[in-house]
């Protein structure tokens, strides 16, 4: 009889297991049709394509947490006008992708980007492909390029990527998150962050008014984001392609120690680290985002500084 309360607790915990919307069986050859990537398991992930008249490279752009492909509606035409195609995709659980608000799991998210890169190579053979990721999108890009089955991309552009080194009392926070993920996975928390005065006016309006931006976050979805960032941090030393890492000192979401750890542990040391005093966390949406885009374009054109890590991250 003494075991009954213990068994009931176990049953309750099992009933509260985190929700992961797992992908289906791989049955299709990925393709882009009717404005969406049709993935290997048949999921339909909407894409926006900004095409240059005569492209010389392609950027696959991954949005941040809560956001969707609309994050690149301003920068997409800017790059296209300068000879760079940009393709932005709604990642699973975001925007118009299936199961909005639910976490799909790391492997599904990585495979989706792998599929998109493969389709672009098939459609545009000979063009160089780069991965651009902002915050969560940076976590996805890092985890993918360090997973041992990296797709054929020429480099990573990471805007305040989600990485986790240097967090004080990290085991305590991780334990608390695992407990909340187990006890209340479906608990939703409203997010009404005010970006006024921090981001460009149109970005402020989009985050405030666009119904496709998530404004209520499930505990298990947030936990999935954190564990993805952990994976990205662990795989930093397996990434072998050149990286441009962009970060702003006012960032209160990602610690500078984590960015420095990422830069110092790159497998080949081909890292151009640029830290600015005024860039916000979502620096691709800041008031000077075109200046940021100009730095990205210059890097794509070969203007790189792989010695800046020592200046920003003294040993």
UniProtKB/TrEMBL annotation:
Q: Which Gene3D superfamilies did the record assign?
A: alpha/beta hydrolase (3.40.50.1820)
Pfam families in alphabetical order: Hydrolase_4 (PF12146)
What keywords tag this UniProt record?
Answer: Signal
Q: Taking every annotated instance into account, which residue ranges of this chain make up the domain Serine aminopeptidase S33?
A: 54-287
Q: Which residues form the signal peptide?
A: 1-21
Q: Which InterPro entries match?
A: AB_hydrolase_1 (IPR000073), AB_hydrolase_fold (IPR029058), Hydrolase_4 (IPR022742), MAG_DAG_Lipase (IPR051044)
Q: What is this protein called?
A: Lysophospholipase-like protein
- Species source reads Thioalkalivibrio sulfidiphilus (strain HL-EbGR7)
């Amino acid at each position: 009889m003494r075991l009954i309360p213990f068994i009931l607790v176990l049953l309750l915990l099992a009933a509260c297991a985190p929700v992961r919307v797992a992908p289906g069986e791989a049955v299709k050859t990925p393709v882009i049709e009717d404005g969406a990537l049709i993935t290997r398991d048949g999921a339909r992930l909407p894409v926006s394509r900004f095409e240059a008249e005569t492209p010389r490279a392609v950027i696959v752009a991954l949005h941040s947490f809560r956001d969707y492909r609309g994050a690149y509606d301003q920068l997409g035409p800017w790059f296209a006008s300068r000879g760079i195609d940009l393709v932005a995709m709604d990642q699973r659980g975001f925007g118009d992708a299936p199961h909005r608000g639910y976490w799909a799991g790391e492997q599904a998210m990585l495979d989706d980007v792998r599929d998109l890169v493969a389709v672009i190579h098939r459609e545009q053979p000979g063009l160089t492909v780069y991965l651009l990721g902002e915050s969560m999108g940076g976590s996805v890009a890092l985890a993918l390029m360090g997973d041992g089955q990296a797709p054929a991309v020429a480099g990573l552009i990471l805007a305040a990527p989600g990485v986790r080194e240097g967090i004080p009392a990290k085991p305590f926070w991780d334990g608390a998150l695992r407990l909340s993920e187990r006890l209340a996975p479906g608990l939703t928390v409203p997010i009404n962050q005010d970006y006024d005065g921090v981001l460009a006016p149109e970005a402020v309006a989009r985050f405030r008014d666009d119904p496709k931006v998530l404004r209520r976050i499930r505990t298990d979805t947030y936990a999935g984001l954190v564990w993805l960032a952990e994976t990205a941090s662990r795989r930093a030393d397996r990434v072998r392609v050149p990286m441009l890492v962009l970060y702003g000192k006012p960032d209160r979401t990602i610690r500078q120690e984590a960015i420095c750890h990422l830069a110092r542990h790159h497998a080949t040391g081909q890292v151009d680290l640029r830290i600015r005093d005024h860039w916000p966390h979502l620096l691709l949406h800041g008031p000077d985002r075109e200046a940021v885009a100009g730095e990205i374009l210059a890097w794509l054109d070969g203007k790189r500084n792989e010695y800046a890590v020592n200046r920003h991250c003294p040993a």
